[in-house]
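Technical appendix A lists one of the benchmark inputs used to test multi-chain prediction within the project. The record comprises two sequence entries:
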Amino acid sequence: GNSVTQMEGPVTLSEEAFLTINCTYTATGYPSLFWYVQYPGEGLQLLLKATKADDKGSNKGFEATYRKETTSFHLEKGSVQVSDSAVYFCALSDAANFGNEKLTFGTGTRLTIIP
Amino acid sequence: DTEVTQTPKHLVMGMTNKKSLKCEQHMGHRAMYWYKQKAKKPPELMFVYSYEKLSINESVPSRFSPECPNSSLLNLHLHALQPEDSALYLCASSSRDRQFFGPGTRLTVL
């Protein structure tokens, strides 16, 4: 079955530091990969996605590249801000079942940025 | 309109109560989802509706009863819940290969 392994948290960084959150996956077929962010007391927001190998998703300074050879989708940002403090979830979906997708989530990584 | 709305935002209920959670989207999505999220955990899929028909039930106890009255609305009827059912309940809808989540209902069962 599908699974997502995500870097254990919590992660605490100083403002303007470089961020990497590791994510690796196991899946049959050709999944789509996602990073979702959850701010305190809120639902999940899609941060970025990639639907095929070597695609790079990017949004708000965050980037992740779909690496089929290493089955990874690591999240990076060059300079984090206090407002980036949140929980980040890596996820995959079975791309063969559009409109009825089952998302498989990683365990989440809590990120705290200190001024 | 790219929003999924959920009501109520917070709900406190006793173990003998009957209540309902509501979810609405006007993006024309034909798949809608209920998730349960416990503190510091990822969301767990409960139900999927596709074209207003239940397509996935992840072995959820019968005290949770989903309903999809039309393509824009999704309800979750609650009856005889247990304290361990206290959680954030998230609704989502999906376009091609992307799910949009609502803000959730924070449920407390006393």
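The radius of gyration of chain B is 13 Å. Chain B has no helices and eleven strands. Comparable benchmark entries are summarised in Table A2.
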